[in-house]
Amino acid sequence: MYRQSSISNKLLFALCNLPKSFKPTPNPKLFMTLLVKNEADILEQNIIFHKHMGVDGFIITDNNSSDSTPDIIEKYRTLGWIKEVITERGDDYKQKVWVDRMIWLAKIKFGADWIINADADELWYAPSGSLKDELTDTNANVLICDIANVYPEEDKPFTEWDKIIHPVDNPSIYDLSPYSVFNKQRGKVIHRTDGYLQISMGNHKVKMIPQNIEKSKILIYHYSVKGKSQFMSKMINGGEQLEKNPKKHGGRHWRYFYDLYKKGVLEKEYNRVIGKKHFQTLQENGFITTDKTITSLFNILKKGL
């Protein structure tokens, strides 16, 4: 069984890989890690989408799912798309530790060259149609990718949502939550396995030795909110887990929403999260715009299934 590498072993691996850490990688082996819990509403589409985008293999950690998530995982494990499944019984949300474990598996067991550490509600889109196009010729070992939140439309499947959100500088004007979908999003990283040391909480940063960062054309479409019931469940579950995590940094938005849940006002806050009261004005002022990139791609994928 794979055992988590110590800091000294990680450093040794990184130093041994130093000569090839910045070399272009023709036809790189690209792996995606996914840490999931009760993601049956989006996981299958996520896997299909990223396979189409060029991901060679998936490693998934399932953290106590109680819906049909395990069935979806087993389906794509049997197909050979998912290379490894880890069942994590912990309830203290040690995300950084669990993702790090998957990264080392991808590197040591499967020989991955590049890693995307994704959430199930993220679709990593390459304008060329292949994520590998961004990886083949670069000398960088870390690529920063921007995020665009997708506006939730509860009356239709998320694959048909065609509105993206632009950051609002003065959220108080529109009575938005401090953690609304209109907040500016921190980018996320794709990184090489050569030189890898440690991923950050939330997969926004990564420690490499040495480090050479470039901006990528890849855009992450983020379905952070998929309706009121999903939002409530996600924030309550995440808050409960973070309270059990002895390390109190990270997950600030979950802690904020979980506190509101305990006060009995989380449902009311949801309307401020999505700007429901001022939706039309937000749209008129250009903070909600139409983008059919993902909906068009899913229409193509449906025809091929």
If you consult CATH, what is the topology? Spore Coat Polysaccharide Biosynthesis Protein SpsA, Chain A
> What kind of oligomer do you see?
single chain
Strand arrangement within the widest β-sheet reads 3-2-1-4-8-6-11-5
Number of domains: 1
CATH superfamily: Spore Coat Polysaccharide Biosynthesis Protein SpsA, Chain A
How much β-strand is present in the residues? 15-25%
What would CATH call the class? Answer: Alpha Beta
Topology, number of strands:
12
Order of helices and strands: HEHEHEHEEEEEEEEHHHHEH
Outline the biggest β-sheet.
Answer: 8 strands, mixed
Total number of helices: 9
The second-level CATH architecture is Alpha-Beta Complex
**End-to-end distance, in Å?**
36 Å
Structural class: alpha/beta
Helix percentage: 25-40%
Give the low-pLDDT segments: none
> What is the mean predicted local confidence, pLDDT?
90
Q: What is the approximate shape?
A: globular
Rg: 19 Å
